[in-house]
Write a structure and sequence with these properties.
The strands form 3 sheets. A 5-stranded parallel β-sheet has the order 2-1-3-4-5, with helices on both faces. A 4-stranded antiparallel β-sheet has the order 6-7-8-9, covered by helices on one side. A two-stranded antiparallel sheet has the order 10-11. The two termini are 18 Å apart. The protein is an alpha/beta fold. The protein has 2 domains: 118 residues, Response regulator (Rossmann fold), CATH 3.40.50.2300; 90 residues, Winged helix-like DNA-binding domain superfamily/Winged helix DNA-binding domain (Arc Repressor Mutant, subunit A, Orthogonal Bundle). The protein is 41% helix and 20% strand. It is built from 8 helices and 11 strands. One of its GO terms (biological process) is regulation of DNA-templated transcription.
């Protein structure tokens, strides 16, 4: 899942991004509304965590523009304006969820994951295929009942493959969903990650390479 965090308080923005990355999510950060619109114009996000009181372009206007463009991401407003009227106003302009500051990070994670499930076709709580089971909430992977220890990036790649439900996923799609905007598109990081993931999942191999197209589980 790929997330955009839009928050002008840089320390808070970076802390949220770090926490989300620890949950195996790909995260980009924008520190103002104009930067958010620029990134949304280039990248496809599943969820946008959006502060309301932003410089350059107000968060409400960012939300309105994205909704008008039918941008596919789900939007959660994360703001200090947490009164009932504020929540109603935020939801009325197109936000999908609203969380007031201060907040419990565990709740933010739960809400981001819930919105991520709504951003695409509905997915079951635990993804399973070919004996491999992935539980996003528990950050747990098993194969035929055996626990498989994965790095955050390996977990993210496996989640994308399982979410495809047997369809081929290209390297470009994996870069889009499992890495952030700072990754070099010409790097061999996908191939290397796939090698280590296959090794950890064990035999017989369950991840197939489709030459010139991508990968399939």
């Amino acid at each position: 899942m790929r997330v955009l965090v839009v928050e002008d308080e840089r320390v808070l923005a970076d802390a949220i991004a770090t926490g989300l990355r620890r949950e195996a999510l790909a995260v980009d950060v924008a520190y103002d509304g104009a930067g958010a619109l620029d990134r949304a114009g280039v990248n496809e996000y599943d969820v946008i965590v959006l502060d309301r009181d932003l410089p350059r372009v107000h968060g409400d206007d960012v939300c309105k523009q994205l909704v008008a463009q039918r941008y596919p991401a789900r939007i959660i407003m994360l703001t200090a304006a947490g009164e009932l009227d504020d929540r109603v106003e935020g939801l009325s302009i197109g936000a999908d969820d609203y969380l007031a500051k201060p907040f419990a990070f565990a709740e933010l994670i739960a809400r981001v994951r819930a919105l991520g499930r709504r951003a695409a076709a509905p997915l079951p709580p635990v993804l399973e295929r070919a004996g491999v089971a992935l539980d996003p909430a528990r950050r747990e992977v098993t194969r035929d009942g055996r626990v498989v220890e994965l790095t955050r990036k390996e977990f993210a790649v496996l989640e994308v493959l399982l979410s495809a439900d047997g369809a081929v996923v290209s390297s470009e799609q994996l870069l889009e969903k499992a890495w952030d905007e700072h990754i070099d598109p010409f790097t061999n990081v996908v191939r290397v990650t796939m090698m280590t993931l296959r090794k950890k999942l064990g035999d017989p191999p369950v991840i197939e390479t489709v030459p010139g197209v991508g990968y399939r589980l």
